[in-house]
Amino acid sequence: MSVPDDRAAFEEKKRARALALGRDPHVFDAALKAIQAANKYDYPYLWSWMGVPIIQLPADVMATQEVIWDTKPDVIIETGVARGGSVLFMASLLELIGKGTVIGVDIDIRPQNRDSIEHHPMAKRVTLIEGSSTDPAVVAKVRAEIPTGSSVMVVLDSDHSRDHVLAELRSYGPMVTDGCYLVVADTMLGRFNAEQAPDNRSKLWLKGNEPLSALKAYLGETDRFEVDAVVNGKLILASSPGGYLRCRISK
């Protein structure tokens, strides 16, 4: 007995469920409480990628994997290198794809973190640039690393204050190419009230001075990007709901 090919139907059901989930505020609120409860254990800090701390929630890692595999960019720019797991994670996906470079930008790449990155098997697909991500000279260095005609994705995950993220969006948003993604990390900070805001980070970011506020301001300045409702609909146990934007195809 032949079994029907149900792959298209399966994907369509996934899409519909993701959209429905994204419209369910009760599930989102419950997830918010779970994230808040787990935060006292430094939950995002408990994960590694190929032996290096990644400092992300698993759902964000999966979402990033999905959009990279879907679009297969030539260059991925990430601001905020931290301990290196995230740039190596994206580099490993590009290695599987068989092309590409991750450009990691950070104001302070500490020697032990540089060592972890530069001696990792995925180091060949990583370029590190040290300096403030909003410094025009640093932005120019990043641009110089992008080969002509490359497809480009950007992930913003450094200083989470509104003005800094907005400056990053204005600097790096134009580098994103048609069909590729701009990811603004830690938009969850814009969903917390003052009592819920994580107080065990390097800084305390309160509503109004966080990435979601910057993202909303930037979307008021440009029509190049659209929020991917399917990807973001799944991001309930995640740091970056609403933060996955796809660059519209130019007409």
- As laid out across the biggest beta sheet, the strand order is 5-4-3-6-7-9-8
What fraction of the residues are assigned to beta strands by DSSP?
5-15%
CATH first level:
Alpha Beta
Number of helices: 9
- Please provide the ordered H/E string of secondary-structure elements: HHEEHEHEHEHEHEHEHE
Number of domains: 1
Given helix and strand content, the structural type is: alpha/beta
Walk me through what this model shows:
This protein is of the alpha/beta class. It has one domain: Vaccinia Virus protein VP39 (Rossmann fold, 3-Layer(aba) Sandwich). The protein is 40% helix and 14% strand. The strands form two sheets. A seven-stranded mixed β-sheet has the order 5-4-3-6-7-9-8, with helices on both faces. A two-stranded antiparallel ribbon has the order 1-2. Helix 7 links the parallel strand 6 and strand 7. Helix 3 packs parallel to helix 4 and helix 7 packs across helix 8. The radius of gyration is 18 Å and the shape is globular. The termini are far apart. The model has no long low-confidence stretch (mean pLDDT 94).
Descriptors:
251 residues, seven-stranded mixed sheet, two-stranded antiparallel ribbon, alpha/beta, 9 helices, Rossmann fold, 9 strands, 14% strand
